[in-house]
Structures are given as structure tokens and as C-alpha cells.
Amino acid sequence: MSRNNPRTRFSTSVSKVLYEKLDRIAEVTGTQKTALVDEALELLVQKYRGRVLASGGEGVSIFMAKTIAFCSHKGGVGKTTSAAAFADLLGRRDYKVLLIDADPQGNLSKRFGYHPKEYRGAIQLSAAVLNILSDDPKPLRDFVLATQNKNVDIIPNDDRYTATTKTLLEAVMLGINAYKVLIQELDGLYDYIIFDCRPAVDNEIAQIMRAVQYLMIPVNA
Asked: pLDDT tens digits, residue range 128-146?
């Protein structure tokens, strides 16, 4: 196995009955058995994630998504390009990635198949934020869309988001950081959650900065 291969080998014994079932599933679905094992392990992770996190023991951090925001007060320095490249490379290495386009220009959305002038669906960041602040919120996974890139999902954005900014800041006055709520609810579904911010540093962007673990500040394209 090559040094750069993101997969790892492990040895285990499987009962004959289970192996025969796995073999049959692979034959019927046309799926490789290694991919089926990955899927089974992912289900186990989701099932026991809560218990592992509640234990507070060493190593629990690997069950939590790493959260990153690409920020700068300047435009044209490579925020969107960097966010897109990170997401694509991580997805190719079998990490599950959620992109959040926090720029109403929607350039990141465009790169991943949701052109802000053509896609005007109800699933986008302004709807997700307003949902968080509603009296009867829906699950936030309902506001996530798939992309053509392996393991990469997105919450797209467009010019409708501008009208949401005032609502966001009003929520801050009540002690609610909508971006932090979004991360907390979707944390268990992804290995990385990446924000692409608009070119500014103001109160709204500050809420994103407070919600994430890491800031990436490109200075040159």
C-alpha cells in the first residue's frame, strides 16, 4: 500500500454466515466488499458516537468535525479557491466534507453546481439560518445538498442571504449564534465543515469566526 494512500489495513475474522451475506450483497449491488465494510463501520460510528463523546475520554476529538473558516477583508485573495480545493482534496481522501457558502455572491456554490443566478431553490443558507431561529425548526440536514464531488456536500448561497443578516444580528443580541447552532447539529455527519466568507470583517463574519476552530486567511491569490 502506497505511503499516500488514505486507507489502512486491518485484520479481523468474520463469521462464515456474515461473510457469505456480504459476498452476496456485493454481487447483487455491484459494490466492492471493502466499500460495504466502510459503510458498515460508518453506521457503527454514527450509532456509538454519542456515547463516545459523553465518555469524555482520550481520543474523542476524532469523532468531532474540524471546523474551518476562510476569511479576509479583501476580495480576490483566494478564499473561495482555497475552500474549494480543501474540500475536493479531503473528499478524495474519504473524509466527509460540508461546505457552507457564507458569501451571497455565491461563487463557491457556482463551483459545486449551484449557480446563484440559476439555482433558486428553497435549500440555501438564508433558509437554514431562518429555520434555526424559527419556533419550529426542521432538521438542518434538510438544508444540505449533494455535489458532484466525492464526499462533498454544500449549503449554497445567493443574494437572498443579504436580507438575513439583520435577523442574524438580532439573534446575537439574544445570545444565539446561528452558525454555532448549525455546526453543533451537523457536527456528527461530517469530518470537516468549511465556511467560505464574504470579503469583510464585521459583526456577521465575527459570528462565524467565533463558531469555528480554525481561521484560514489567504493573503495572495
From this structure: 999 988 889 999 999 999 9
Burial of 81 (0-12, 13-18, 19+ CB in 10 A): middle
Q: Look up the pTM and report it.
A: 0.80
Tens digits of per-residue pLDDT, 87-121? 999 999 989 999 999 999 999 999 999 999 999 99
Strand (E) or helix (H) holding 154: strand 152-155
| Residue bearing cell 489567504 | 218
- Residue listed under C-alpha cell 476529538: 61
3-state secondary structure string across 52-120: HHHHCCCCHHHHCCEEEEECCCCCCCCHHHHHHHHHHHHHHCCCCEEEEEECCCCHHHHHCCCCCCCCC
In which residue are the cell numbers 491569490 written?
A: 221
Three-class DSSP category at 194: strand
Q: Are 102 and 196 in contact (CB under 8 A)?
A: yes
Report the DSSP beta bridge partners of residue 67. 193
Tell me: do 183 and 78 sit in the same domain.
yes
Evaluate whether residue 169 is within a structural domain.
Answer: yes
Q: Can you tell me the distance from the alpha carbon of 133 to that of 147, in angstroms, rounded to the nearest whole number?
A: 26
**φ, ψ dihedrals at 84, nearest 5°:** -65, -40
Does residue 80 share a domain with residue 46?
A: no
